[in-house]
Design brief:
about 725 residues, Butyryl-CoA Dehydrogenase, subunit A, domain 3, two-stranded antiparallel sheet, ALIX_V_dom, about 70% helix, elongated, BRO1_dom, mainly alpha
Length: about 725
């Protein structure tokens, strides 16, 4: 009811569009077409004949609504300000192209063509007027005006059709006369502006012929304008003043000044029209116009099937695109892996300008502990002192034991006992044996600890210099870290490589973004509603139209994939130049990392060094105490052993009988004393004064003469034979 009694305003246009859209949704679900099961009679009155026309076809209802929509638009356009290039031709065009022309005579092809071109011509008039007010270029204004002429010529042809003439009756002649008048008038306007362009180009002969043609066409328009309203007559008179003045002035200037030949009009290039107006589009399935589909829940099975087919078309499209993307990505990944170029680290020059955070932490930690190095040095000194003390004590013990061993060996030889095998010391006293055993144990422990102590001192000496550096000013720390030295050419090579790597990343990112956009578009693309309202014979065409929405993103992807070859070629060339710079940077980076790790290791080793140093001090302090006690014990044992040896000697001397008196004998010759193998009798011993004192053992030199004589009597022959006589 609202569509039949539509108000004459834009709200009425909206109502007609909504009703037309809902009819479209309805006819796709309910068989209401001609000769279908649910068809009902639909009646409308022809606008020109006044006859009522009835058809049992829902498309007739749609056609009549479209016709009225175009008519209402034309009425609103006539009332509106002449500044819009949109026009009512859209409804008539959609009606002409999508509906049968046999419903009624006012919907015939010729009538619809007439309406379309009248609407387009009037819309182009509005644009022409606006262009002249905006002082657009003369050639553009001429083309716009020429297009007005073209539209009205098409309208005039439709009016000259016999069917149209019989339908329109008397108004056919009036409309034809008015349209012809407009044709001449706007042709005059077009040639007026072509003359202006010739004037701008200083083609004064052409200017005269264009102005003359404009004047001739305007005179024809004035002839056809008889009976038109006064406003039209006034416009024509104004145009005559302008064109007539232009023509007279141009002719006079050319006759008296320029003297250019005036060409014939048909020798000049014709003015080609510029169609700049647009028909308001009609889309029966646009929800913004028609509102929500009130029959949305009624989806025929055929629509579901068609939707599945469309989904397969989308999937095929996606598979094709992804196959190309994956092939290119595989090539790109293999290429980048072979290059071993990480965009994040290819240019790491900035790292050399700063002390790394981990090193800054260590410097900050040492800044609040200024005595770190001092404590470590003192700990080393204390440890060395204790170590030296222990070593001295153990050496003294060893010396005492060796001295005792020597004395014991001499005593044994003096007493005439069988000497021990070479290298085997005589058995010590029980006290000394215990001391020797403990000394050996301490020496073994000391030797093992000595190696550890040496390694600890090496580690301390290694880390102390690093700790001093970390404790000092940050400038010194920064100066101690290696840094690369690059020439300007090296820097240019780096910049070029970075730029191309950025291009590679940009290409990757764009490719991923386009792929994601494509996936999202395909996922959201549901044309079920359109399929419901589309005839089965039109499905393939609809699929093709709908899939065109992916053309743009496919073009972008193709461009992205095609660019890869050029980018990788440029990257290869840049990488060749980068090889030498890369090697130098890698070496410096290795030194940098090694230096940083060494400094950090020195800091982290500090606590461990202090701990081990303390453990070493504790160990050697304990060992020093034990060694000191053992030293005292050794001294006491050695003294006891020495006293024991003296007692043994004294006892041995007391066992000897006193010497018997003998007559003096003449002095012996200076030759070795020969003794019998069976031994010597005491009476056969030479006087003590006849022996060479220096040949006697040190232990016997200090013995009293009587004790010495008794001792010599007990010596074996081979021992006594070694002695020589005193030359005195």
């Amino acid at each position: 009811q609202s569509a039949v009694n539509v108000p004459r305003d834009f709200e009425g246009c909206s109502t007609l569009r909504k009703y037309f859209g809902q009819l479209h949704y309805l006819q796709s679900r309910i068989p209401m077409g001609a000769e279908q099961e649910a068809a009902v009679p639909i009646a409308w009155t022809e606008i020109f004949s006044g006859k009522t026309v009835t058809h049992e076809d829902i498309k007739y209802e749609q056609a009549c609504i479209l016709y009225n929509l175009g008519a209402l638009h034309s009425m609103l356009g006539a009332m509106d300000k002449r500044v819009s290039e949109e026009c009512a031709a859209g409804a008539f065009t959609y009606l002409r192209d999508h509906f049968p022309h046999s419903y009624s005579v006012d919907m015939s092809h010729q009538i619809l063509n007439l309406n379309i071109n009248l609407m387009l011509g009037q819309a182009q008039e509005c644009l022409l007027e606006k262009s002249m007010l905006d002082n657009r270029k003369s050639f553009l204004v001429a083309r716009i005006s020429a297009q007005v002429v073209d539209y009205y010529k098409e309208a005039c042809r439709a009016l000259e059709n016999s069917e149209t003439a019989s339908l329109l009756g008397k108004i056919q002649k009036d409309w034809k006369k008015l349209v012809q008048m407009k044709i001449y008038y706007f042709a005059a306007v077009a040639h007026l502006h072509m003359g202006k362009q010739a004037e701008e180009q200083q083609k004064f002969g052409e200017r005269v012929i264009y102005f003359q043609s404009a004047l001739d066409k305007l005179n024809e328009a004035i002839k056809l304008a008889k009976g038109q309203p006064e406003a039209v007559q006034e416009a024509l008179r104004f145009a005559m003043d302008v064109i007539g003045g232009k023509y007279n002035s141009a002719k006079k200037d050319n006759d008296f000044i320029y003297h250019e030949a005036v060409p014939a009009l048909d020798t000049l290039q014709s003015v080609k029209g510029a169609p700049l107006v647009k028909a308001l589009p009609v889309n029966p399935t646009d929800p913004a116009v028609t509102g929500p589909d009130i029959f949305a829940k009624l989806v025929p099975m055929a629509a579901h099937e068609a939707s599945s087919l469309y989904s397969e078309e989308k999937a095929k499209l996606l598979r094709d695109v992804m196959a190309k993307i994956e092939a290119k990505n595989e090539v790109l990944d293999q290429f980048m892996d072979s290059m071993q170029l990480d965009p994040e680290t290819v240019d790491n020059l900035d790292m050399y300008n700063h002390i790394p955070p981990i090193l800054m932490e260590k410097c900050a930690a040492l800044s609040v502990r200024p005595d770190t190095v001092k404590n470590l040095v003192q700990s080393m000194q204390v440890l060395s002192g204790v170590f030296t003390d222990v070593e001295a004590s153990l050496k003294e013990i060893r010396d005492l034991l060796e001295e005792d061993e020597v004395q014991e060996r001499k005593l044994q030889e003096l007493l005439g006992k069988v000497p021990q095998p070479q290298g085997s010391p005589p058995p010590p006293s029980p006290g000394l044996a215990e001391v020797s055993k403990e000394c050996s144990k301490y020496m073994e422990v000391h030797e093992k600890a000595s190696f550890t102590n040496t390694e600890l001192h090496k580690a301390m000496n290694l880390h102390i210099s690093n700790l001093r550096l970390l404790s000092g000013p940050l400038e010194q720390v920064r100066a101690a870290l290696p840094s690369p030295t690059l020439t300007e050419d090296d820097k240019q090579v780096l910049q070029n490589l970075k730029r191309i790597l950025a291009k590679v990343q940009e290409m990757r990112d764009q490719r991923m973004s386009l792929e994601q956009q494509l996936r999202e578009m395909i996922q959201k693309d549901d044309i079920t509603t359109s399929l419901v309202t589309t005839d089965r014979s039109e499905m393939k065409k609809l699929f093709e139209e709908q899939l065109k929405k992916y053309d743009q993103i496919k073009v972008y992807l193709e461009q992205n994939l095609a660019a890869q070859e050029n980018i990788l070629k440029a990257l290869t060339d840049a990488n060749v130049k980068y090889a030498a710079v890369r090697k130098a940077l890698a070496e410096v980076e290795h030194k940098w990392n090694t230096t940083v790790q060494t400094l950090v290791a020195s800091y982290e080793a500090y606590e461990d060094l202090m701990k081990k140093s303390q453990e070493g001090k504790d160990f050697y302090t304990d060992l020093e105490g034990k060694a000191a006690k053992l030293l005292e014990k050794a001294r006491a044992a050695c003294q006891a052993a020495e006293a024991n040896r003296q007692q043994i000697l004294e006892k041995e001397m007391k066992k000897q009988p006193p010497p018997r008196p003998t007559a003096p004998k003449p002095a012996l010759q200076k030759k070795p004393l020969e003794l019998e193998a069976g031994g010597l009798d005491a009476s056969d011993l030479p006087p003590l004064g006849s022996l060479v004192l220096s040949e006697l053992p040190e232990e016997l030199r200090s013995l009293p003469p009587d004790v010495l004589a008794g001792h010599l009597a007990r010596l074996p022959p081979h021992t006594l034979a070694a002695l020589t006589l005193n030359p005195a």
